[in-house]
């Protein structure tokens, strides 16, 4: 590997969840350590880069922020494949972002608005198998408006078999922790396992590239 | 009647009669009156003498007879004696009678004297009575003066006093009382003067109390006139050019007679003043009175002026009270001047007016700082305008007040600017920076009616729901701008004589608002990390620029004076225009930084042992990302800007990619490494080709040729000028050799 690289590993993450749950805010908090209360919805796709250190290694995180709005679904779904870790974000002050079936108990069919289960099944459908996931309940600073309890969040995470964390982009609670823990899990899953398989050090990247290449080839353009 | 001239003959006759009396009885009848007469005439003696004479005559006769008739004689003598005795008795009786008569006459005289005496007393009494009567009349009149005084008939009292002094008192000058009353006259006059002054003071006090109400009624009346003028102007638009208090307005409104001082709400009776003036005139104290009155009014004026006013009370009562007070006071002054020209001088009245205006202006100015709401200020201005118009109709000079309105206007403009600046701040900070979704035709009409915008499709052809290019901040700001303009002109409603100031201030304020608020706030938001927001800002700037273009002629047309004419140029127009470039640059910057980020994840192995079959992951991500943003976040931009972005992005990408093998840290490059790069460049070129824009391809020329050179079997071709120009014309003269070296 040439010396131009200023990192040891590249990890691609993806943020998904309903519009307004705070995906962009979490990302801005993590990448710029800033927060703006005004809601500027994401159009299409966006990404941020932040390099962190894990176990003495420089890990470059390329974090893709998707638009929660339905109309950008085709654009955003294309990014599931390349993702090594996915953050499923809901808003603890918005029941529908968590569980829309409770909101429409008599509708018979599934609600129009996606909820965490819908997002989860999208992930299952489009993302690479075995991709790391984490359930994130954002806006935990806003206790007065909370409608989804920590317990329910934890319960759902257990049901889906993924880690869970409540965060606040606004008050900077657990945001670092969430990204770090997901990155650490990925590192453990991909990099550390490939090491045990005696692959060369850069194998991580190879495997990551393989990940993307195999899917991208068919998908792109 | 017996003659007094010859009592003797009479007596003689009487005696004859007595003596010749045929009988004794007869004798006495003759005798007694004779005696009576004699004694009455003081001729008793004479009678006696006659009688004696007679007797002597008879004696002699008798003697003779006797001589002859002695006997007879003797008897006669005897008889005679007897007669004599009788005579004597008679005489004494006569004497007694005389005596008694005398005594009764004395009594009579006495009585007569008493009568004369009593007559004199009676005259005295009569005279005294008359004098008393005269004095009583004077006293009655004197009392009447006081009665009239207590009945408040001061002038009658004074007239009565004058009458008393000049007529009645003159009639009794001899009496002490006259002197006393005379002495009391000045005191009484003073009393009258005081009483009338007390009356006047009561009147003045009442006037002071009614002043506010009078002002209120006067304001109301002016307002009615305003309404009528408006109604007339509606019916006859020509009339709208004539302001309140113009000759035309006054003539048109003539039918509406209204006496401000005497109507069903207020009645101001000047009688006490007239009386007072009259009386002081009569007293010869007119100058003093005039001076006193002037002082009193001055004091009242002082009392009228509060030490401070507030402009922010709910109903504006504080200001209204002040102005109504001044109006009422000044109307009374003007009315007084008209009714009693000798009392109030124009100078006095104007002086008070000026002083009150000055104070009012100072009071209002001092309170101005507390006003933070333009509507409140507008309402207060309305009251002041009403005041000005009312007072102008009373011929008071209002120039100072009119110029004060300018100061109010300045403040108004400042408040409006602040308010709208806050509004814009709010709008800009709460905007979603998304093209505005419209669900229905009604909604579309509503929006399009307030904005400056030329739709590219006719209204009928639009399918809903649709999306308008700008975000909702644009219509919101347009509404605000329109409101701002309207509210500016609200100030000139009713009464404001500086239309040009409004025009100028409006233009400057709007310009400052658009440049200083809207534009500045938008530019500040260009630091945003959200590409979508920046794109929307650029689109909004474009629309604001259009709005400015449309506003300029609108402002010119709205100018109140045609004479000013000319076009209006807003600095904001240029500001929006030039800041579109700033926004554009920021978009380039952000897109380029993303490209840098992605190229920063390129992982070429320049000395790879094997040949890479697929394009790099970063290259695929880059092209997909570019394509995605072009089709989503940048989609709404005008085509030429989109092309520019692509152009800039690709040229930046090419430069960055080229810098990868050039990096000093890259020592050696093997054919596998070059092949990988070539594959990526090829991939990029194919991507650009799909964009179907030949100009974009040119951006990749240097990169392509450089990679070609790196792949070339014969590197000498580069050093041959002819082939180099043909094949590697775009390759940098410095970079070429460096890469060939590697
Ligand atoms: N109180 C609170 N508000 C938050 C928090 N995070 C985000 N918000 C607010 O939630 C709104 C939505 O945030 P975004 O991050 O733009 O939402 P998003 O998930 O990116 O939405 P899309 O881009 O439309 O998919 C914004 O108004 C934020 O200010 C938080 O931790 N606490
Ligand atoms: Mg977002």
Task: Provide the spatial order of strands within the biggest beta sheet of chain A.
Answer: 2-3-1-4-5-6
Could you tell me the mean pLDDT of chain A? 84
Number of helices of chain A: 8
Report on the biggest sheet of chain B. 2 strands, antiparallel
Total beta strand runs of chain B: 2
**What percent of the residues of chain B sit in helical stretches (DSSP H or I)?**
over 70%
Distance between the termini of chain B: 207 Å
Give start-end ranges of low-pLDDT stretches of chain B.
none
Could you say which small molecules are bound to this protein?
Answer: guanosine-5'-triphosphate, magnesium ion
Main sheet strand line-up of chain B: 1-2
- What is the element string of chain A, with H for helices and E for strands? EHEEHEHHHEHEHH
Q: By helix and strand content of chain A, what is the structural category?
A: alpha/beta
What's the number of extended β-strand segments of chain A? 6
> How is the main sheet of chain A built?
6 strands, mixed
Organism (chain A): Alectoria fallacina
Keywords (chain A): Cell membrane, GTP-binding, Lipoprotein, Membrane, Nucleotide-binding, Prenylation, Protein transport, Transport
InterPro entries (chain A): P-loop_NTPase, Small_GTP-bd, Small_GTPase, Small_GTPase_Rab
Family (chain A): Belongs to the small GTPase superfamily. Rab family.
């Amino acid at each position: 590997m040439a010396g131009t690289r200023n990192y040891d590993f590249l990890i691609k993450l993806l943020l998904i969840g309903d519009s307004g749950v705070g995906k962009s805010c979490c990302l801005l908090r993590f990448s710029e350590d800033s927060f703006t209360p005004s809601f500027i919805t994401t159009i299409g796709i966006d990404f941020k880069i932040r390099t962190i250190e894990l176990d003495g290694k420089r890990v470059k995180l390329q974090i893709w922020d998707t638009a929660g709005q339905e109309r950008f679904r085709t654009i955003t779904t294309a990014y599931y494949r390349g993702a090594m870790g996915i953050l499923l974000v809901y808003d603890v002050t918005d029941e529908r972002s968590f569980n829309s079936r409770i909101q429409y108990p008599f509708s018979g069919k599934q609600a129009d608005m996606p909820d965490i289960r819908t997002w989860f099944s999208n992930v299952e459908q489009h993302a690479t198998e075995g991709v790391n996931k984490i359930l994130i309940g954002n806006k935990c600073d806003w206790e007065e408006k909370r409608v989804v309890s920590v317990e329910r969040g934890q319960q759902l995470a257990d049901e889906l078999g993924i880690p869970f964390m409540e965060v606040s982009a606004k008050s900077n609670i657990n945001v670092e922790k969430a990204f770090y823990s997901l990155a650490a899990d990925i590192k453990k899953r991909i990099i550390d396992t490939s090491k045990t398989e005696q692959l060369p050090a850069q194998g991580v990247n190879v495997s990551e590239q393989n990940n993307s290449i195999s899917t991208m080839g068919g998908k792109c353009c | 009647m017996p003659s007094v001239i010859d009592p003797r003959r009479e007596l003689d006759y009487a005696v004859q009669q007595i003596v010749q009396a045929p009988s004794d009885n007869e004798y006495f009848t003759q005798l007694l009156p004779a005696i009576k007469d004699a004694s009455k005439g003081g001729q008793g003696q004479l009678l006696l003498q006659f009688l004696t004479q007679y007797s002597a005559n008879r004696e002699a006769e008798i003697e003779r007879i006797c001589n002859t008739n002695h006997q007879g004689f003797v008897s006669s003598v005897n008889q005679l004696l007897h007669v004599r005795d009788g005579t004597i008795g008679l005489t004494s009786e006569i004497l007694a009678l005389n005596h008694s008569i005398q005594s009764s006459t004395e009594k009579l005289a006495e009585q007569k004297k008493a009568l004369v005496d009593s007559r004199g007393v009676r005259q005295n009494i009569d005279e005294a009575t008359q004098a008393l009567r005269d004095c009583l009349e004077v006293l009655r009149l004197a009392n009447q003066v006081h009665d009239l005084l207590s009945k408040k008939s001061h002038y009658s009292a004074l007239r009565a006093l004058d009458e008393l002094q000049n007529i009645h008192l003159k009639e009794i000058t001899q009496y002490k009382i006259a002197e006393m009353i005379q002495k009391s006259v000045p005191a009484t006059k003073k009393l009258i003067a005081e009483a009338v002054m007390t009356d006047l003071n009561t009147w003045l006090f009442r006037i002071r109390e009614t002043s506010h109400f009078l002002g209120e009624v006067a304001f109301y009346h002016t307002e009615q006139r305003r309404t009528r003028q408006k109604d007339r102007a509606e019916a006859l638009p020509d009339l709208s050019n004539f302001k309140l208090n113009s000759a035309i307005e006054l003539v048109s409104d003539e039918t509406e007679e209204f006496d401000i001082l005497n109507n069903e709400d207020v009645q101001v009776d000047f009688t006490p003043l007239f009386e007072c003036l009259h009386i002081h005139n009569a007293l010869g104290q007119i100058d003093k009175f005039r001076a006193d009155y002037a002082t009193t009014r001055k004091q009242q004026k002082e009392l009228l002026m509060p030490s401070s006013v507030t402009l922010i009370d709910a109903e504006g009562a504080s200001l209204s009270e002040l102005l109504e007070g001044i109006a009422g006071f000044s109307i009374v002054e003007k009315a007084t001047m008209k009714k009693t020209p000798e009392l109030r001088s124009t100078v006095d009245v104007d002086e008070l007016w000026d002083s009150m205006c000055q104070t009012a202006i100072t009071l209002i100015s001092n309170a101005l700082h507390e006003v933070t709401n333009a509507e409140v200020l507008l309402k207060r201005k309305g009251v002041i305008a009403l005041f000005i118009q009312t007072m102008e109709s009373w011929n008071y000079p209002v120039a100072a007040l009119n110029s004060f309105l300018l100061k109010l206007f300045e403040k108004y403009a400042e408040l409006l600017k602040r308010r709208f600046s806050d509004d814009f701040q709010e709008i800009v900070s709460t905007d979603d920076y998304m093209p505005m979704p419209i669900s229905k035709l009604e909604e579309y009409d509503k929006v399009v009616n307030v904005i400056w915008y030329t739709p590219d499709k006719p209204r009928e052809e639009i399918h809903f729901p649709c999306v308008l290019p700008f975000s909702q901040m644009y219509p919101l700001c347009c509404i605000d701008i329109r409101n701002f303009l309207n509210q500016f002109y609200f100030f000139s409603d009713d009464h404001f004589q500086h239309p040009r100031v409004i025009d100028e201030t409006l233009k400057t304020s709007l310009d400052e608002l658009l440049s200083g608020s809207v534009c500045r706030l938008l530019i500040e938001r260009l630091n945003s990390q959200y590409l979508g927001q920046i794109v929307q800002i650029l689109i909004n700037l474009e629309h604001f620029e259009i709005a400015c273009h449309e506003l300029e002629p609108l402002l010119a047309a709205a100018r109140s004076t045609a004479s000013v004419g000319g076009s209006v140029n807003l600095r904001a127009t240029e500001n929006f225009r030039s800041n579109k470039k700033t926004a554009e640059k920021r978009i380039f910057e952000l897109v380029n930084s993303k490209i840098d980020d992605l190229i920063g994840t390129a992982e070429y192995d320049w000395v790879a042992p094997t040949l890479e079959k697929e394009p790099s992951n970063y290259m695929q991500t880059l092209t997909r990302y570019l394509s995605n943003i072009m089709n989503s976040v940048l989609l709404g931009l005008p085509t030429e800007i989109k092309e520019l972005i692509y152009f800039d992005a690709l040229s930046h990408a090419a430069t960055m990619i080229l810098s990868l093998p050039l990096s000093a840290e890259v020592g050696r490059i093997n054919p596998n490494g070059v092949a990988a790069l070539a594959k990526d460049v090829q991939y990029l070129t194919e991507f650009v080709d799909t964009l179907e824009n030949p100009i974009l391809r040119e951006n990749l020329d240097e990169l392509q040729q450089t990679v070609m050179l790196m792949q070339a079997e014969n590197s000498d071709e580069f050093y041959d000028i002819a082939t180099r120009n043909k094949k590697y014309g775009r390759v940098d003269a410095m970079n070429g050799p460096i890469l060939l070296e590697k």
